Amino acid sequence: MANASGFFTTPSVPSLRRKIQPSIAIFGSGFRSPEGISGRVVFCSSAEKQAGATSSSESRAPRLVSKGCKLVGCGSAVPSLKISNDELSKIVDTNDEWISVRTGIRNRRVISGKESLTLLASEAAKKALEMAQVDADDVDLILMCTSTPDDLFGGAPQVQKALGCKKNPLSYDITAACSGFVLGLVSAACHIRGGGFKNVLVIGADALSRIVDWSDRGTCILFGDAAGAVLIQATDTEEDFLLGFDVHSDGDGNRHLNAPLKGNETDSELGSNGSVLNFPPRRSSYSCVQMNGKEVFRFACRCVPQSIENSLANAGIPASSIDWLLLHQANQRILDAVSSRLEIPSEQVISNLANYGNTSAASIPLALDESVRSGKVRPGQTIAAAGFGAGLTWGSAIVRWG
Question: Which residues are catalytically annotated?
């Protein structure tokens, strides 16, 4: 499993029931291991390592020195079509009370008409750039956290095109479902601190309405579509917005939450020439979301608090230092269980679940943007964020806004 630094520590996959051990965290001057070793991250050519052999100005290879990074802008966008619980009850056997009591959800937004995920992601990104007062041409990396792109080969380049970035910045997707945005934050920090990037857009966007079985009341009541974005910017100081983090995955838990590839059984078992069995391959498509709700609930209530505790330990701060708890908006009961375990008062828990439902990778940046723009989250405040979901993947990050 890869630990928080991205280095593999063991070839085996951890059990969900095993106590999660603290991972490596990014600190002001570089990386700190659990043993407390820290140091400045410096990459240089072999020639530079030879004392007096060559000056930095004469080096043929770039010398990248670790920098700090901060959150400077956020934005979000949701589809225009709002579906209430009452409206949903017209197509599936359910009602408003049944849904709201069990999940906390009352409405969700669904992409319709000419709307697309690329459009939502681009709108969210533009708002983040406007808040940060950064031009699109100054963006040098776009990370699109999504499991439902408009194009199977990736959505990030299309967002880059929609933003009008003239310098062709690197743009690629991160596929980790509801954990995607947290992994995007960690990845952005690593790109800035070790790769020399200056302005990184991290976008969480998903349209799970496309892969939901709208006749299955166990899943269709949960999901909605949205996009949220943040701009992370390099600084010349060693102060860092990412105080500590903890990330994990367990493929054994995939059976509890997935949307697997399935073959088209209507195709012939014979190939086009009638002689080669199973070739050409059958045309395939992805199934709707399959979820064992009880097991996913248990997984989240067990692993998320542990992960946040590990991130706090890596950051070297107590839970009492947290101003806000911002979890993936999956179920109000999960939010309540995690905040209770961490002894964080309910008034410090950010929740917009009632209005949007589970928007997968978009849920954390969407809730963050609303909280920042309403004045709830203020510059300098500390947020404990955590994502969890399909994969199974989960992770947390202790971040400072502004």
Answer: 178, 328, 358
